[in-house]
Structure formats: structure tokens, C-alpha cells
Amino acid sequence: xxxxxxxxxxxxxxxxxxxxxxxxxxxxxxxxxxxxxxxxxxxxxxxxxxxxxxxxxxxxxxxxxxxxxxxxxxxxxxxxxxxxxxxxxxxxxxxxxxxxxxxxxxxxxxxxxxxxxxxxxxxxxxxxxxxxxxxxxxxxxxxxxxxxxxxxxxxxxxxxxxxxxxxxxxxxxxxxxxxxxxxxxxxxxxxxxxxxxxxxxxxxxxxxxxxxxxxxxxxxxxxxxxxxxxxxxxxxxxxxxxxxxxxxxxxxxxxxxxxxxxxxxxxxxxxxxxxxxxxxxxxxxxxxxxxxxxxxxxxxxxxxxxxxxxxxxxxxxxxxxxxxxxxxxxxxxxxxxxxxxxxxxxxxxxxxxxxxxxxxxxxxxxxxxxxxxxxxxxxxxxxxxxxxxxxxxxxxxxxxxxxxxxxxxxxxxxxxxxxxxxxxxxxxxxxxxxxxxxxxxxxxxxxxxxxxxxxxxxxxxxxxxxxxxxxxxxxxxxxxxxxxxxxxxxxxxxxxxxxxxxxxxxxxxxxxxxxxxxxxxxxxxxxxxxxxxxxxxxxxxxxxxxxxxxxxxxxxxxxxxxxxxxxxxxxxxxxxxxxxxxxxxxxxxxxxxxxxxxxxxxxxxxxxx
Length: 609
Ligand SMILES: Nc1ncnc2c1ncn2[C@@H]1O[C@H](COP(=O)(O)OP(=O)(O)OP(=O)(O)O)[C@@H](O)[C@H]1O
Fold this sequence. Notes:
Layout: E1 19-20, E2 26-34, E3 38-44, E4 48-53, H1 54-58, E5 63-66, E6 69-72, E7 75-79, E8 83-95, E9 99-101, E10 104-106, E11 109-122, E12 130-139, H2 142-157, E13 165-170, H3 179-192, E14 196-201, H4 207-214, H5 217-220, E15 225-230, H6 232-243, H7 255-258, E16 270-272, H8 273-276, E17 317-322, H9 328-334, H10 339-347, E18 352-363, E19 373-377, E20 380-384, H11 385-394, H12 403-414, E21 418-427, H13 428-434, H14 443-449, H15 465-468, E22 488-503, E23 527-533, H16 537-548, E24 560-565, E25 567-572, E26 578-581, E27 584-587, E28 590-602
Parallel strand pairs: 13-14, 13-15, 15-17, 17-28
Antiparallel strand pairs: 1-2, 2-3, 2-12, 3-4, 4-7, 5-6, 8-11, 9-10, 11-12, 16-22, 18-19, 18-28, 20-22, 20-26, 21-22, 21-25, 22-23, 23-24, 25-28, 26-27
Helix pairs in contact: 3-10, 4-6, 11-12
The structure holds adenosine-5'-triphosphate.
């Protein structure tokens, strides 16, 4: 092994020499000094870069020694799909091989021209966690360095999914109040990757939604996507600003149209979808959220002035850089609650499709006139316990993320339940996978003697087979969300509920490591309706404890109903109607919801196994 010395002068007998590899792809190969590694032969092919220590080419042994010091020879590679930038660094120090001997780090450096390749590396222990890695290559010949920078740059330009222009919203007071700090730490990644950003730091609640609503489609199409630096509520605001005036689809049925006369028992009764489903109603839109669009009818182009912005829109994506209190959307779509991972997935142009629930409030209070008001939810909509926690927690926003623990405990101790009726659409092909067994032991026996059942359900992962399956599209496509096949029927559940929850995704977070529903998928076209019927407080506590446990079984209780459904309707029989939609308050006494499969695309890769 040759130890590099100061003034190291590698002769230039290995010029940049593109040569044909015998196939279609031309290969570039040169010798460089790789910072802290040593002299390598760097090769570029159509997929990426690979390099090998010069010594290991001469000597096939894996290990060598020098002055009694042992080191392992390395060859490695990085694919262009993992490289987000290359930059010429000019003249400067490149370190020779660094190795340790009796606690000391030894190595020699040399001055030369350098360029850096910026790539990502998956953490060995947590593959969903990504880190940047920098490879600095040095050479005495300026031209050789520049040729390589240009070649690598040209290869990166061919990675067509990468964003070039992004609209970035930063919520400075999100989570622990560090939204701006998080963005400032990550902004250099975007500029290094040559992604232009227009940054808007929000001044108030609703600011981002207003910008997204008022921006013209023409202006919007200048961007490859929009990035939210904040929490789930902030993401929800941007999602609604994007969709409310642009997404055109029929509403889900009004519960007033579809529900049957009130029945006393809690048992579900069945009625046929065909009896109730979707006669387009002629509601006029008086909702400020609907910005003048009648969502029940196809839209005429607005005077040909502004181009249509259709959904799903594969080109335009939304990114989320987690800075909030819960960050379930970032966790479910990247597998990590890590701003750096999210930023790297954005600049690399990762893509995952996301189901979105359209929630239509028909009445805010029992006395209100029926008129539709729409919200979109990407993660969760919940009533009862969930609505009460969000109402309570808003009073303690100054506490930061801890407000949820405080509010949750307070609401738990109140142990309220609410009378309501739900109708949900059951899709026959999904039935056996979703509902609990019909014949169950009584509540106490099941709750106190059940062992966690081994789940054989499939969790959503990067390149998920369930989400990529085309089959369900026939049932729940983006433009026609409700199945009209004879394989579906409406079921009813009514009675007193501690909570009603509709999870669009698993809603994993740090408090609930498997989420509310561990096998919910990002893009399968279904919600998971979780109905917690009135039950003794200790049993409810047990359900909540199961939620906080990895591998817990929060749904395996007699008082819990779990229905996988593309649509449901809800009517409260009390005075209250407080919903929690993606962590934001939404008052609704009567509402309905439906899922649009893969309605939006995110800059994310999905959780890695
Ligand atoms: N500059 C601002 N000042 C006050 N509120 C804001 C501002 N910008 C946005 N908001 C509002 O704050 C709400 C909550 O934001 P966000 O979701 O980022 O934080 P969080 O509630 O702490 O996190 P999480 O939703 O993950 O629990 C958003 O719905 C948004 O309307």
C-alpha cells in the first residue's frame, strides 16, 4: 500500500478515457484520489458510479497491511437514482487513506482539483432513515475533473422525476416552534440539487390555504410541487387549498337521503346500495370553502382563461417536511419522522400515491339548513373522543406537543359517549379481511382473556403490492369513487359511541407505533372505520394502551367495530358534532365521506422494510 504524501503527484497517465464497454453504454473511467480512501479507479456507466481501490485491482486479497497497520480494501458504487448533486470544488486538500492505529487516526493529504458527489445512504439499522453522504474526488488535472462533473451532471439531468421548481410553505410555529430553523438547515440540500424554491413563511392560520386557493392554475403549473414544512394540520391546509376549487367529483350521499328510520338496537342492518346510492343532488354551493364550484357537476372551463388542473395529477406532487407535533403523514409516507430523510426524498423526486378522503358536512348543528361544505383529509377524521381531544388541546397550544397528552387524559377521565348512526359501504371482496369475527365471547371475556392475535395482514411498504394492484381501480377510481357493483352494500351501525374514527392511512406516530390500523395502505382506495362503542372505562383504557404498543391489538375487542370501506355517512343524535380532520377542528352534525384512490402524489418513497 502506498501511503500518500503531501505534494502527492499522481501522473496523468490515466486520462479521462471514455471507452465502449461492448454494449450500448459508453463507460468513463479515470483514476482519482478519493478523500479519506486512497487512489481509486472511478467508472461511470448508465446506472451510476463505481470505484475500486487501485491496490485491490493489483492484489486480490481483501486485507493488506502497511507499517504493521491493517486495513480492508474497498470497492463501492452509488446509483444515479441516489445521487442528488455534483459540484466542482476547485483546488484544495484531499485526504489520503485514513486508518486507525492504537486510537490515533493516521493519513496524508494532498492539494489538487476536487469535485464532490452528493448521494444518499440508508441507515443500516433503520433503512427508512436516509443520510446524505459526500464523496470527494481529487485529481491534478482540472480538465479531467470538469469533464467528470459535466458527465455526472448530464446523467442527473436525465433523472426525469426530479423537481426543478418548488413552492415551499414554512409554518414557523409548528410543533415546538422550530419550523423555520428546520427549513433553514435543509435549504442548502435544495440549492445544491439545483431545485429552485419560492419560500413563503406563513403569518397566520389559513395563510397557506389562501395562497393555494388563489394561485392560478397557470402559476401552479410552473411548479413541480408544493412542500409543507410543518405538521399534519398544515399539510391538510395546503391539501385543501389545492383541491377545494380544483377537484371535480360527485359528493358522497347525504345521510339525510340514505339513512333508514332510526332503529333502537345496536345491531347492523343491511340495505342495498342500489336503493340509496348517489342520485346527483342539486345543492347549491354556499360554502366559503367551495369557492364557487358546484362539485356535483362536471365543470365547464372557466372562460378558457386558466388551464384545468386535474386530479390525480402525476406531475404535481406534495412534499411534507415534518416539523409538527404528530407528523403521522410524514411517518406513514417515508417510514421516518426525519426532516432530512424527507428533504432527500423530495430532491430525488420520489413518488408515492396517496388516497384522500373527501368529507362533506351537510349540517353543522341539528338546526342548520342542509348545505354541503367540503374538507379533504389525508390521514384521519374522528368524532367523539378525537373531536373532544382536539377541542381541548387547542386551548393549550402554548404547551406544544405535550398538549395532546394533557387534553387526552382530561377527555379520557370525562369518559363521554355520543349517540349516532353510521352507514358504511361494504365491498364484498374486502369483507373477509376487515370485520371482526361475528361470534365473539362477551366483552369482558374477550377483553381480559384475549391474546394478541398474530396479524397476517400486509403492512404498506415502499413499492407496495396492494397499492400497486390495479384491481381495485374498477371499484374505487379517482373520478368515480363509489363502487356501483352488486358486490357492495350499505350496512348500518347505530348506538352510543365513545369515538368514531376513519383512518385513511395507518396514522403511525410516536405515540402509536403501529398506528390506529397497522395494515392500512397509502393507496388502496379504502378507509378504515373504527367504531368504539360505549364500554366501561377500564376496557377503553385497555384499547388505548394497545394502541401505544408495538404489535398491540387495539381492534381486537368486542366493543370495537372495524370496517374497511370506501364511503360512510354519519348522523349525530345529540347536540354536538365535533370532528377532528387531520388534527384540525371541523364541526359537523351530519356528514358523509368517500375515498379517492391515489388522488394526490407525494414526494416520498414509502416506508422501507
Ligand atoms: N404562522 C402561523 N401562525 C399560527 N398558526 C399557523 C401559522 N401557520 C399555520 N398555522 C396553523 O397552525 C395549524 C397547526 O399547524 P401544524 O399542523 O404545522 O402544527 P401542529 O399542530 O403542532 O402539528 P401536528 O398537526 O403534526 O400535530 C395549521 O392548521 C395552520 O392552520
